[in-house]
Fold:
Amino acid sequence: MKKGASIRKQTLKWALLLFISVSSLIAWSSFHDAAHEVEELYDAHLAQQARLISGLLTGLEAAPLNPVEKLRLLNSMEQPFLKAKTQEGHRYESKVVFQVWQENELILRSRNAPGSRLTQQKTGYALEQVDDQIWRVFVLNHPQQQQIIMAEREDVRGELVDKIALRTLLPDLLGVPALALLIWLTIGKGLKPLEHLAEVLRNRDPHSLQALHLTDLPQELKTIQEAINLLLQQLRALREREQRFIADAAHELRTPLTVLSLHSQNALQAKDPQDRKESLKQLQQGIQRTTRIVSQLLTLARLEPESSFPLEKINPLRVSRQVLADLAPLAMQQQIELELFNEEPTTNWSISMELGSLEILLQNLVTNALRHSTSGQSIQVRWQRWLQGHRLEVIDHGCGVSDQQKPLLVQRFYRQGDFYGSGLGLAIVARIVERHKGRLKLLDTPKGGLTVSISFED
Structure:
């Protein structure tokens, strides 16, 4: 369908095209059959007339008449063919003729028949051209060595066939406009629900994302309404996520920016170089924290559970070693040991995850563990195989978390105590686990600390 084309016009066009095509095929078939039947009828009429003349000749030969009476009777046989333009006859009669030949001698003919022999055929039907006219002829052999030729001009049949064809096509030709009007009205009635739906959408508040609840809709429009409602639901969820993200970002960035402003003012107003240096140091730390918060917020916004993403086979042990190597300087600075364990070191492990998700997950878990650990302690990253997939455990030996606080750790911007952080790390971990249909558990580490256990199904 062309851009901007009307459904009603397109349907009308194709319906009429189909109707005219089928009607033309039927009309051609009817014309062909009618023409054939007319030809058969006229051929039978010629044969009937020839046999009638043959019967008259037989009766004439058997009658006890003198030659004068027989001649008068022969002349009277011509009369049915001489009424071409009289009120008693028909205008087609002059186009039907006959000849009677005795060997090569024309002994009898209708007055409007040609003087030359109409055909050389011995018997049966034929088409012959005589004096620029085409004749349909029938030859009948009389028992007395006579040959009866009945002939009819072909244009008579053509004229009759044309009239039959015109009368056959006339109802179709007259019916096309009526059918077009009926189709137009019918389609218009059928499109009323669609026009109503379009009117509702046009008059709808552009900012409204509430579902449509139109009743008495055809099944096809019900499907469209359901698709629109699904789209509105997705848009509503997207807008809610955007509003939540904006609110969270504004809430979380308000305090750091205020602190940055204070540090910059202190640096500008400080007269003692040591005080200026301390203010600049605090400013730099604030910038780093704000940068980390922005990065975490963007990561959290990207990791929507509903969004689609490709899965790739990755080696979790190789990724874990790389993440721990990246965080080793920070751990060494705090004098904390990072350890990686796996039950089957010789096995080539693989897990299907979104590329980059495991790195983000491990970085947040290990960084969070480092933040809550003290010097001399260790953090273990443990991979295990289980019946349905893989299990990851990140174990720290810090102060631990109470059972009441554990559900709060996965909420955004929740921070336990006065620890330095954005409160987004475990929220991002929970989002990644949700996207990969895994299970997240927060458990107590024996002798103190927190164990984060994540199960991934194959």
